[in-house]
Design brief:
heterodimer, A: about 525 residues, mainly alpha, 2 domains, 22 helices, about 0% strand, B: alpha/beta, four-stranded antiparallel sheet, 9 helices, globular, membrane (chain A)
Chain lengths: ~525, ~300
């Protein structure tokens, strides 16, 4: 453990911009809803209607989680943000742990530190302390600001503690995944996979009355299960604590069983000669991108199937009440409630795939800074060919992922509804309609890489953050149309729907292609390295 | 005699730092040209301009008869490059990288590839991540040497190689020259350049300070001598070619030009030698001595 304090200070210094940003963003988001809620639902009548319409609706629960009491601003906030804030905090915690453990080993820097007077467990302890500390600070900020906004203290504290608990749980998960593989990329991938499974578990649990026990298995549900502002059950908050201690201990037990720099999963020798497919820039890009593409394809198929399998129940549930039906149709403006739902999950698929597109585009930058672009560019590969080969995956890979997600949703929904022919088309159409918006995000990432390479990573993730933030929270925060219009996903017509206009799809595609081409042109003109 | 590389008045700045400040360089076809300079003198920047990775701010650059920035792709099929710090893709095996780079350049000689793997004692099955620095260097060297190209651009290629592998490398470069290939070899090790190169350009702070054959640069290749003598070292300081003599009792330290080494040694043995160490001066010492006044 020797040296842990120094390593904590080092980690805080390296993350001195990133971590405060996350604390601000995740800490202050809940309190923003309170006034919005009071403005949108000023009286008891409107709140009761909201509670009746959204409270038990499985199609909404699949995304946001189970609502326990939507008649108070606190209950609404806990429902609206419980899952997604936990998800983001989980990502922040996991990536922080990986960045200060496996990524440091990966780059060889930890070896340098390890030769100084630093204990075997110091790096892991420091990373866990920073990630857990960040989670605790975010939870504390949330609780304090909610109390400050006049909400009950018990509920506010339960909410904040629940969020901190979720961060803690994924800190522990990352402490284990960082021991398993040799690369930080795969360690983050494994932690992200655990988050994805946690999201799916609760998506099914929250939306299917018969399987609600599944939600108890998901760290993302624990905040909502502690029922902040709806008859608090503080004992639920012990679950993340116990889980974090148990899982985290696993990480500490695994650490001494491996060498520095090595993973627990063994490394196999490779082929002595290259396969025929490994030729040309596209062959290389395929080799570098295929693992991620296969993983994402499987994940999107599963996510699509889960979301799709719930679609059929929605029409019947909402059908009882004219009033609720009205609300739903206003929400989407489309004819059928199921169609509205399919269009809604289509946009969720779109935003998830946008993350993939940015990851692919940023691979260009890591190849460049890692010194692996240089030998390729000095071996007869033109710059357009090299960059274009990776962009093929950003553009066509995202088309594949959206199609697969749509197919998954369409198959699952169509089979349950006994109407495979129509529903498959609807679901695939709803997903594919998002492609132009994904291309806009990918195009901007490519443009940043060509024009402002040093800012490409931060800039691209900022774009994703803004787009996803507007998509998930914009309507709830009652943001103006001008703000909503910033996101390309706002402009995607509702598919399936009665009046699908092709015009926005055409100009979104044009923007995506134009920005990508401008990025290529800029890359041809700048220095490499 | 034709010119493979011709650079004149090359300027390249990064922000406020002027990395190259009017550099001239001329490499003749078929020669091994040493490109010598201390760390940070601009060797790698020059090479990256020659490869079209960086765009020159000013100056004329011609490589194999073309413009390295405009005709990059066509020129690159005729050259092979070994970077000073080789990074490999962590999940590709060494053999895969060698084949890939060869194919990108338009094919490589499989017999020669296998022969080189054998000579460099390199296991092509290991993944990029698991290679040591020296072995990563070998992967890039094998890929370059097995390609059928006119020009080899080698940026400090022996950094990380052990002495045995360094001599393998030197034999390989000599063979390449015998096949009529042009080699640009950047280095900060004087001895390496002495063994391999027909002509040498010396660069410092972004400018070429000397160019010529090794004979032209003979004044640079002094030897440092330290000796314990039986008697006082009388008269050694006055010998031609002896510099910077320091004497403490019967112990002397001095530098001597290679051409005058014989005479200096005779003078030493005449005084009676008890112990003797001789070593070539480091490049840094030479630079300190020769170019101090040109300033940083």
């Amino acid at each position: 453990m020797t040296g842990t304090g120094a390593l904590i200070r080092l980690a805080l210094r390296r993350d001195r911009v990133l971590l405060p940003l996350w604390v601000l963003l995740l800490g202050f988001l809940p309190v923003g809803t309170v006034s919005t809620y009071e403005g949108l639902y000023p009286d008891a009548a409107s709140r009761t209607t909201l509670n009746a319409s959204s409270g038990d609706n499985p199609s909404i629960a699949v995304i946001y989680g189970k609502a326990f009491d939507l008649t108070t601003p606190g209950g609404f906030t806990a429902w609206r943000y419980g899952v997604f804030l936990a998800l983001f905090l989980g990502l922040v915690a996991a990536f922080t742990v990986t960045r200060h453990t496996r990524a440091e080993e990966d780059s060889g820097r930890l070896e340098l530190l390890g030769s100084a007077v630093v204990g075997r467990y110091a790096a892991l302890t420091a990373a866990v302390a920073v990630a857990a500390g960040t989670s605790a600070v975010v939870g504390a900020v949330q609780a304090v600001t909610l109390i400050g906004a006049g909400l009950p203290a018990a509920g506010s504290l339960t909410f904040g503690a629940g969020m901190a608990g979720a961060g803690l749980a994924f800190t522990a998960v990352a402490a284990v995944t960082a021991q398993l593989t040799e690369y930080s990329r795969s360690a983050n991938g494994l932690a992200g996979g655990v988050l994805g499974v946690a999201f799916l578990l609760r998506a099914v649990g929250d939306s299917s009355p018969g399987a609600s026990w599944l939600s108890w298995l998901s760290p993302l549900s624990w905040t909502q299960l502690a029922r902040p502002f709806a008859g608090e059950r503080p004992w639920v908050l012990f679950i993340p604590l116990v889980a974090a201690v148990v899982v985290g201990t696993g990480g500490y037990l695994l650490l001494p069983r491996r060498d520095l720099g090595a993973g627990l999963l063994p490394m196999r020798p490779g082929p002595p000669t290259a396969p025929p497919s490994l030729r040309g820039p596209l062959g290389l890009a395929w080799r570098l991108q295929r693992g991620a593409l296969i993983g994402w394809t499987v994940a999107m198929a599963v996510i699509g199937a889960v979301f799709g399998s719930i679609a059929d129940g929605i029409g019947g549930l909402v059908g009882d009440s004219e009033q609720v039906r009205g609300i739903f149709e206003r929400m989407g403006g489309a004819q059928g409630i199921v169609d509205t739902y399919l269009a809604l999950i289509g946009s969720v698929f779109g935003m998830v795939v946008a993350v993939y597109a940015v990851l692919v585009a940023l691979r260009l930058r890591t190849e460049e800074t890692g010194g692996r672009a240089e030998p390729v560019l000095a071996a007869g590969v033109g710059r357009t060919a090299w960059m274009g080969a990776h962009l093929v995956f950003a553009l066509l890979g995202s088309a594949l992922l959206l199609t697969v997600a749509g197919l998954g949703a369409g198959l699952a929904h169509g089979l349950r509804a006994g109407d495979l022919g129509t529903q498959l088309g609807h679901a695939v159409g709803g997903a594919i309609a998002q492609l132009p918006a994904v291309w806009v995000v990918a195009g901007v990432a490519a443009l940043l890489f060509g024009l402002l390479p040093t800012l490409s990573a931060a800039g691209s993730w900022a774009v994703v953050g803004v787009v996803v933030g507007i998509g998930l929270f914009g309507p709830a925060l009652n943001a103006g149309q001008a703000v909503l219009d910033v996101s390309p996903f706002t402009h995607v017509p509702k598919v399936p729907g009665p009046a699908v206009s092709a015009a926005p799809l055409v100009w979104l595609t044009a923007i995506g292609v134009f920005t990508a081409a401008a990025g290529l042109a800029a890359f041809r003109r700048r220095d490499v390295g | 005699m034709t010119t493979a590389i011709s650079v004149s008045g090359l300027v390249k700045s990064f922000g406020r730092t002027r990395a190259l400040d009017g550099l001239d360089l001329s490499v003749r076809t078929g020669e091994v040209h040493g490109f010598l300079g201390p760390n940070g003198s601009g060797k790698s920047t020059t090479i990256r301009v020659l490869l079209g990775l960086l765009r020159a701010d000013a100056g004329e650059v011609t490589l194999l008869g073309g413009d390295p920035w405009r005709d990059a792709t066509e020129l690159h099929r005729r050259l092979a490059y070994v970077p000073g710090d080789v990074s490999l893709w962590p999940n590709l095996s060494g053999g895969e990288v060698i084949d890939l780079l060869g194919r990108l350049r338009g094919g490589l000689d499989r017999r020669r590839r296998d022969e080189l793997l054998d000579r460099f004692d390199l296991d092509p099955r290991k993944k990029g991540r698991t290679y040591s620095k020296g072995n990563r260097q070998k992967v890039a060297l094998v890929a370059a040497l097995a390609s059928d190209v006119d020009l080899l651009v080698l940026d400090e290629p022996t950094s990380g190689l052990d002495p045995l592998m360094e001599s393998v490398f030197q034999r390989c470069v000599a063979e390449e020259r015998d096949r009529g290939r042009t080699v640009l070899l950047s280095s900060h090790i004087l001895a390496e350049v002495e063994t391999l190169c027909d002509r040498v350009s010396i660069i410092r702070a972004g400018r070429a300070v000397e160019t010529g054959t090794l004979a032209d640069l003979r004044h640079l290749t002094r030897t440092s001598i330290t000796a314990d003598l039986s008697g006082p070292p009388d008269g050694i300081g006055e010998l031609p070619g002896v510099h910077d003599l320091k004497a403490e009792g019967n112990r002397v330290r001095f530098d001597v030009d290679t051409s005058d080494l014989d005479r200096a040694l005779r003078a030493l043995t005449a005084a009676g030698v008890k112990s003797l160490t001789s070593q070539p001066p480091t490049l840094e010492e030479l630079f300190l001595r020769h170019y101090q006044e040109s300033g940083r």
